[in-house]
């Protein structure tokens, strides 16, 4: 039951993020790992609710993911009182830690407007399943499928 609750919470949180960042064409959040690594999603989420805090175009054009992440975490600390729970270096990786991202986005959810439409939730439910898997699970699934194909190619071994 706890797993189901977590899944529903993540679905609502992802729906909220996607709904909030919809007008930012550079941002497409499909998970709580790789979608956050370049720093654009955090900044878009903040800007969508508090556009007076910074110039989106200036931040979006910054070349470094680390700069964008640092900017978002500083804005959230200074204007929303959210502690810097993440280091930019830990997020700007091939696969950031899902639980850390979830914890930080939940902190944002608690202080920013929280309206989530049913349409946004349905949209998340329609995302391809693999886009919601952490990278490690996706790779593991790929290896399992590849191994199954290899084994079935040699029926005498079975």
TrEMBL record:
This is DMD protein. Pfam families: CH. The gene is Dmd_1. The lineage of its organism: Eukaryota, Metazoa, Chordata, Craniata, Vertebrata. Residues 7-113 form the Calponin-homology (CH) domain. SMART domains: CH. SUPFAM superfamilies: Calponin-homology domain, CH-domain (SSF47576). It comes from the Eukaryota.
